Amino acid sequence: MGLTLATERAEAVRLRQRFIDAGAQNVECAILQSAETLLDVYGEDIRARTYVTQDPSRGEVMLRPDFTVPVVQMHMESGAAPSRYTYCGEVFRRQEDHPERASEYFQVGYELFDENDAAQADAEVFALFADTLKSYDLRAVTGDIGILTAAVRALRVSQPRREALMRHIWRPRRFRALLDRYSGRAAVPPSRSALLAAPDPMAHAGPRIGLRSDAEIAERIAALRAEAAEGPLCLSQVQLIDTLLAVRETCSFALEHLHDIAVDLPGMRPAVERFERRCEALAARGVDVSRLEFETSYGRSSMEYYDGFVFGFVPARRPDLPPIATGGRYDALTGRLGAGRSARAVGGVIRPGLLLQLETTA
């Protein structure tokens, strides 16, 4: 294990130097991170994927699961845009579902904070990663969470339903289940039907279990009744979302398809136009967008704090390996960590250990 980590460290340092040469400032981040901050960003689900412990003075802390959150905190406290940062070091992730994967490994990252043209910044970061990884047999994939969120905001649906869909954009199965229920394609669960049919659902509820008060439970029941009284979501609206989620083409063809969908969902047109400007900026940096892959759903299950452009580089001949590099835009995250301030930010990470695996199996 020591030799493996030493080899990873050497490769990480080599990659970090590439980003330093591109104008990034090297930064260091503590291995122990505030659990409260990470829970606020990721939600309670992160406990199943991280190592949590108690610090006598700081309370609950986590072994560093990534670098983006502490780098954003650092920048929002003292940084000025444009700023470029790089880092390398170990991160720690529990791998209960994939015990064959390492739970301790190195990451190397590049983060760009720039208040100017977002399309140009997106293109700069992607092109830098593409150039850094060009000697490896990798397949680049891109997406845009902002296009899907814009489409959901454009639906003719009540605000509570819209908010529920927005909360679950990063949980594809739950998102699909909500769409099916709202449109009438899936029946209401019998337990919920019985709850809503009861004149006083709490009358025979038995002892209270959990942290919710009676008032909070009653408020939730009232919300469920209001939602049940709402008519089904228009099937044509659901079909537009289905069509959008099915877009999986090269950027050039995807852009045409997205413009067609935006005719019926005009609220998503500004997001599509941002995608078009990004394609132009990528092409100006030598990226062949006529061959670059685009998937509307890319990153929805693994890139929780990204809210716009997303990308990944996956091994073309090693489907058993996770992505070698991932990244994207996370403007909203800066607002959550910026204590009233926000910034435009885009970045990505590379896993040097996976690159070494590719070299040894080539």
Q: How do the strands and helices of this protein lay out in sequence?
A:
Blueprint: H1 2-21, E1 25-26, E2 32-34, H2 35-42, E3 52-55, E4 59-63, H3 68-78, E5 83-92, E6 104-113, H4 118-132, E7 138-144, H5 145-154, H6 159-167, H7 172-183, H8 190-197, H9 214-229, H10 235-245, E8 248-250, H11 251-264, H12 269-284, E9 293-295, E10 309-315, E11 325-329, H13 331-337, E12 345-350, H14 352-361
Parallel strand pairs: 1-5, 7-9
Antiparallel strand pairs: 2-4, 3-4, 5-6, 6-12, 7-10, 8-9, 10-11, 11-12
Helix pairs in contact: 4-12, 6-7, 11-12
Binding site for L-histidine: 66-68, 93, 107, 111, 300, 305-306
Keywords: Glycosyltransferase, Transferase
Organism: Salipiger aestuarii
By helix and strand content, what is the structural category?
alpha+beta
Strand content: 15-25%
Portion in helices: 40-55%
Largest sheet: 9 strands, mixed
Please, what is the oligomeric state? single chain
CATH class label of one domain: Alpha Beta
Characterization of the model:
Among the domains are: 1-134 and 327-362, 2-Layer Sandwich (BirA Bifunctional Protein, domain 2); 157-234, no CATH class. Strands 1-5-6-12-11-10-7-9-8 form a 9-stranded mixed sheet, with helices on both faces. The relative contact order is 0.17. The protein has 14 helices and 12 strands. With 362 residues, the protein is an alpha+beta fold. The two termini are 22 Å apart. Homodimer. InterPro entries: aa-tRNA-synth_II, aa-tRNA-synth_II/BPL/LPL, HisRS-like_core, HisRS/HisZ. One of its GO terms (molecular function) is histidine-tRNA ligase activity. It holds the Pfam family tRNA-synt_His.
